[in-house]
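Q: What would this chain look like folded?
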Amino acid sequence: MEGSARAVAVVTGGGGGIGRALALRLARDGFAIGVLDRDRAGADATAAAVAAAGGCAAAVTADVADQQQVIRAFADLKARLGPTRVLVNNAGWDVFGLFADGDAATWARIVAVNYLGMLHCTHAALADITAAGNAGRIISIGSDAARVGSFGESVYAGCKAAIVAFSKSLARELARARVPVNVVCPGPTDTALLQSVGASPLGARIVAGLTDAIPFRRLGTPEEIAAAVAFFASPAAGFITGQVLSVSGGLTMAG
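A: My prediction, written as structure tokens:
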């Protein structure tokens, strides 16, 4: 379904896991959904799920680490759905392991996807979002790793902390246009990615430790992350900007 008059929300990394939950929830709230992902099959599956639920969606393929691919993808979505009004920077990638055992190529890829990718997507959508004024939104998916650190995720945690600082600074820049810019920080969340991490002995210990550290003693769900993003995307959050919300069962209790 394309060519909708509905306001457009673009979800990066929308091909599965938290991204798919975000797309489905925002579609339920009345947005037309642009699904951007490296995995075309996953992006198409999310778009099909949105359509099956009565929504409107279009899928595009791009590696967020490649700025030219991102520019082309946003232009494609604009031509098919209309200008982006809400951007959800969700695309991310990580490899669990000790920093001492890492290498520069892996660090560069983590930074390119998690931080530079967020910059690329935000810049590509910025003019249209700013033009929407207080109806525009930029919502980035951080991580509680940015707030408390995370064993085995040093570079990833650093990228997520950078997203928080960038978002607060951008919130100040866009305040004159009254565009809210906020961050949602998931705690450990039950996704296929986390399950794959838990398949290794080190990963299994990390996942078990994370779960034990959560006061609620369970992992979060993608739908719980989506509910927080939906709030920030809603008119109810029009006077909230530069904020960081943890959805983590109490893992982080920052003031």
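The chain has one domain: 8-187+221-246.
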